[in-house]
Design a protein that fits this description.
84% helix, elongated, single chain, 5 helices, mainly alpha
């Protein structure tokens, strides 16, 4: 199973962003910056890790689900593959949302950040599907 080049590019981008954020956090902790800077960096790292996990799981589950449900992605303006990826993404976000709800005490301050970002990430594919359907309808 070969991964798509854009998926690898996206994962690489998020990984580089995560590494840069951790480096900045390490440098700022040595100089004692304001507490808000550290908090923003920690929350950003938390969301970046969440997005990396979601992108990785979507990439791993995409091909098996296409084969399991016998989804045809060939043809011009065939949106089956995009819809499948969007559904996998939303289901994973909702699954993570349930897990975050069970681990409320362990997450502490990050609970609200994760809960809000997971709901936004779960609804994002819905908006993208509407956009793709609108663009396909223009053709």
């Amino acid at each position: 199973m070969a991964a798509e080049p854009f998926v690898l590019l996206g994962l690489g981008f998020w990984l580089i962003l995560l590494i840069v954020a951790f480096r900045l956090l390490d440098r700022y902790q040595k100089k004692r910056p304001p507490w808000t800077v550290i908090t923003v960096l920690l929350h950003s790292n938390c969301i970046a890790i969440l997005v990396l996990c979601n992108m990785g799981l979507t990439t791993l589950l995409y091909q098996p689900i296409l084969e399991l449900f016998d989804i045809n992605t060939s043809g011009f303006i065939n949106l089956n593959g995009i819809f499948t990826a969007c559904i996998i993404w939303s289901i994973l976000c909702l699954l993570f949302w349930v897990i975050v709800g069970k681990a409320k005490e362990q997450l502490g301050r990050y609970y609200r950040t994760l809960r809000t970002s997971l709901m936004i990430f779960a609804l994002l594919p819905l908006f993208l599907c509407f956009l793709f359907l609108f663009l396909a309808g223009l053709n």
